[in-house]
Amino acid sequence: MSHDPTPLNDSPFRSEPSARDQAPQFVLPLVVRIERAAPPARTDALETAARAVLVMLNDERSTGDGPWAQAVRDWQDARIRKVVRRARGSEWRRAESLPGITVTGKSAEVRVFPPVPLDGWPKELAKLQVSGTDLDDPELPAGADPGTPVLWLNPDVEMSAGKAMAQAGHGAQLAWWELSDEERDAWRDAGFPLSVRTADPVRWRELVGSGLPLVRDAGFTEIAPGSCTVVAEHPALR
Fold it and tell me: Mean pLDDT throughout 3-27?
């Protein structure tokens, strides 16, 4: 399996100008199903979105000579953008009719699609709303399972559920890039277990200085450029 090293000074998740800005820009579309009567739990939606990114990166259509491989390479050569839109009813059925992969959590369904040009969304997805993706957890999430990768959210940055889903996906992708082929195989074979949790302030400061993969948002939407949003703590990277 090919490795995807990303030099620290060429991170796709930074606000500073970079050579990546000169490449054609692509976006990874994700659609979360939010039915009025049964919306998913927020944390489950975040975790499902992060797994969906990993599933897309590992799908045979995304690698080698697969039909999505060139789009995935072009996307990873530029800024790594992910946009989460919401759908219900007939909107969701139309989204499911397009080439992509649906990943299911405990209560969440997220469909991920191969990358598209920034201004070239399929019309079925372009019509879907980005704003208003507000979700709640019916009960406080339990502690993360020991030995399971955890995507830690910054406790001081408020994000909509859609924005947080994209950031969790960024964190999962950074962790994936840092792993060896053997560590990747083990994570994939286990079904990409992971947790998304909000760190307490003291723990967050420790994580930011730990050397673990850190997402610094480019600031295209919602939050200030350069904001630290996620630290990816995979057991193999400690």
Answer: 57
Instruction: Fill in the DSSP letter of residue 212.
Output: S
DSSP letters, 133-150, are -----SSPPPPPPTTS-E
Encode pLDDT of 209-236 as tens digits: 999 999 987 666 667 778 899 999 999 9
| Nearest Cα to Cα of residue 76 among 7, 13, 12 | 12
Of 159, 164, 186, 161, residue with least CA distance to 175:
186
Q: What phi and psi, each to the nearest 5 degrees, are found at residue 24?
A: -55, 135
Contact 222, 198 (CB under 8 A): no
- Report yes or no: 143 and 152 within 8 Å, Cβ to Cβ: no
- Nearest CA among 112, 130, 120, 87 for reference residue 169: 112
